[in-house]
Design a protein that fits this description.
Blueprint (H helix, E strand, L loop, with lengths): L3 E7 L2 H14 L2 E10 L2 E8 L1 H16 L4 E7 L6 H5 L1
Antiparallel strand pairs: 1-3, 1-4, 2-3
Length: 88
């Protein structure tokens, strides 16, 4: 079965790094990628079991919001195989 993916998008590199650190420390998730989107926006993507990814994203959202603006968060429980093309 495919792993869930979770994303946190912030308007700060420092907040994104803190979000990534919080996610990997708070749940059994693996960091897939950190992507500079532009205009100071950075997205961090993790993968793992649905419950772990959900907990990691929620924890990261709270912590990153203390540092900078959190633009968006999302958890995709069962992403389609085609999503791999975006994340490569």
């Amino acid at each position: 079965m495919r792993q869930a993916i979770g994303m946190v998008e912030t308007k700060s590199l420092v907040a994104a790094i803190q979000a990534a650190d919080t996610m990997v420390k708070s749940a059994d998730v693996t960091l897939l990628e950190a992507e500079y989107v532009g205009s100071g926006i950075v997205a961090v993507i993790v993968t793992g079991e649905v419950a772990a990814v959900t907990a990691a994203v929620e924890n990261a959202k709270e912590i990153a919001a203390e540092i900078a603006e959190v633009i968006s968060t999302n958890v995709i429980a069962r992403p389609h195989d085609e999503i791999d093309k975006i994340l490569d």
